[in-house]
Amino acid sequence: HLLSKYISYEDKNIEEGIDKFLADNPEHKDKAAIWAVLKYVI
């Protein structure tokens, strides 16, 4: 999955991982959508 290199299952700071992902992938601006996806992943 796209986000998996930014967010590991052990990672407590998912928010920080998402911010890093958005910084590297500015076309994915919708943080709410990413959280929605994460609910299914985690």
- The total strand number stands at 0
By secondary-structure content and strand pairing, the structural class works out as mainly alpha
Low-confidence stretches: none
Give the CA-based shape: globular
Q: Provide the domain count.
A: 1
Q: β content, as a range?
A: under 5%
* SS summary, helix count: 2
**Mean pLDDT score, rounded?**
74
Main beta-sheet strand count, sense and barrel state: none
| Overall radius of gyration | 9 Å
- Specify the helix fraction band: 40-55%
What is the succession of H and E elements? HH
The rounded distance between the terminal residues' Cα atoms is 12 Å
Structure description:
There is one protein chain. This protein has 42 residues and is mainly alpha-helical. The protein has helices at residues 14-24, 31-41. The longest helix is centred in the middle third of the chain and has 11 residues, at 14-24. It contains two helices and no strands. It has one domain (2-41).
